[in-house]
Write a structure and sequence with these properties.
The chain is of the alpha+beta class. The chain has two domains: 142 residues, Four Helix Bundle (Hemerythrin (Met), subunit A) (Up-down Bundle); 236 residues, Alpha-Beta Complex (paralog of FGE (formylglycine-generating enzyme)). Helix content is 33%, strand content 10%. The protein has ten helices and eleven strands. The strands form four sheets. The chain has a four-stranded mixed beta sheet with strand order 9-8-7-10. Strands 1-4-11 form a three-stranded antiparallel beta sheet, with helices on one face. A hairpin with a 4-residue loop joins strand 5 and strand 6. Helix 3 runs parallel beside helix 5, helix 3 runs antiparallel to helix 6 and helix 8 crosses helix 9. The chain is globular.
């Protein structure tokens, strides 16, 4: 879905901000106080904090920075600012009703300001806020999944019927040559820009992300017990966190052709070593996902994939068989995020947008890049140039991977 707004920018923003907000509010239907205010995992704030942070961020950038208004709720600044409190101290939250009032009051004034806002200079900020809420909406979704997992109440979802044809993960040749990395469009987050012409040697990339039935072979052949498949860092992590399967694993054969979901970078790397392949670089991933060698043009979007909670879980990797990348790879947008072996860093001539804390502080050679979006990614944050980043030990996100190989 292309986010770049049409000529009637104000109408576009009103419609999409309203739609995005409703998706956020839907996540809190019939939520109990414990789920609302408690951490599900030490690395993630309570869902109630994310809800308040969405209101705070919108108020701060539009009402305070653009409209020059005084803070509406100054008592919330420390609580809901990203740098205000450690995650472990964000559980003492106002009631849901109070935070919903906060959202409503802020949004009313924001829309009043939009009527006269100089969008010729502010449009990028408004679209950034739309994506900011989208990203927190996905984080809220994964935290709710963690709460269900902690209570052993993950929903019993009905997967698609198993195909009678065994899906084999063929390798697609991505030929050597130049392509355009990045995105200069209005919706691009700062770390996606600027565009750069990059030359890559030829390589192979798997047609599909790694499926559960293939990952099960790794599990059954001692993948989590054999040191030779793991990097030194990965083996140290495994020793401290003795797991034996992905976080969101189902033993049901009906999930055989779903992508594996809930693995971290170390697990992905170990599987690649097990089968004699490797993870792609993020540049390789983006070229395979977006670049058409015949036309010399780039594809950024699709409406036809498993995203935006349309299904509520993963789907078989060939569910959207009519949608494939120009190179012939499937399922590269939506379903599960895909780990790459690249560290998160700025592109040449990178310039931060709004503040360094959004991207630049994470250029620390400690975060790995994921690409492609998941079944919970909203359309405003779904494109082939979007970059996600996490520490390599994080397995709570809706992440899988696909394998690459040299020529």
């Amino acid at each position: 879905m292309q986010v770049k707004s049409p000529k009637n920018t104000k109408e576009y923003l009103l419609k999409n901000l309203t739609e995005c907000r409703q998706l956020t509010l839907n996540l809190f239907t019939n939520i109990d106080q414990e789920t609302f205010s408690n951490q599900a995992h030490p690395d993630f704030s309570p869902v109630g904090w994310h809800l308040g942070h969405i209101a705070f961020t919108e108020s701060y950038w539009i009402l305070e920075k653009c409209a020059n208004l005084s803070p509406l709720f100054p008592q919330y600044h420390q609580l809901f600012a990203a740098d205000g409190l450690p995650k472990s101290e964000r559980e003492n939250l106002p009631e849901l009703e109070n935070i919903l009032d906060y959202l409503t009051i802020v949004r009313k004034q924001v829309f009043q300001y939009l009527e006269s806002a100089p969008l010729e200079t502010q449009e990028k900020l408004w679209i950034w806020l739309l994506q900011h809420e989208s990203q927190h909406g996905e984080t809220i979704t994964l935290i709710l999944e963690l709460h269900r997992l902690n209570k052993q109440k993950l929903p019993q979802l009905t997967p698609n019927k198993q195909s009678e044809i065994i899906l084999k993960n063929e390798s697609i040749l991505i030929p050597a040559g130049e392509f355009i990395l990045g995105n200069n469009n209005l919706e691009a987050i700062d770390n996606e820009s600027p565009e750069n012409s990059i030359y890559l040697d030829g390589f192979y990339l798997d047609k599909y992300p790694v499926m559960c039935y293939k990952y099960k072979e790794f599990m059954e052949n001692g993948g989590y017990q054999k040191r030779e498949f793991w990097s030194e860092e990965g083996w140290q992590w495994l020793a401290k966190n003795p797991v034996s399967k992905p976080l969101y694993w189902s033993d049901s054969p009906e999930f055989n052709y779903h992508p594996v979901c809930g693995v971290n970078y170390y697990e992905s790397e170990a599987y690649c070593n097990f089968i004699g392949k490797r993870l792609p670089t993020e540049m390789e991933w983006e070229k395979a996902a977006s670049w058409d060698n015949l036309t010399g043009k780039k594809s950024l979007y699709t409406n036809n994939c498993n995203h935006n909670l349309l299904v509520g879980n993963t789907t078989p990797v060939n569910s959207y068989s009519e949608e494939k990348s120009p190179s012939g790879c499937y399922d590269m947008l939506g379903n599960v995020w895909e780990w790459t072996n690249s560290y998160f860093a700025g592109y040449p001539s990178f310039k931060y947008y709004l503040y360094p804390g959004y991207s630049q502080v994470y250029f620390d050679h400690k975060h790995r890049v994921l690409r492609g979006g998941s079944w919970a990614t909203r359309p405003w944050a779904l494109r082939t140039t979007f970059r996600n980043w996490y520490h390599p030990w994080v397995r709570e996100i809706f992440a899988g991977f696909r394998c690459a190989n040299d020529l």
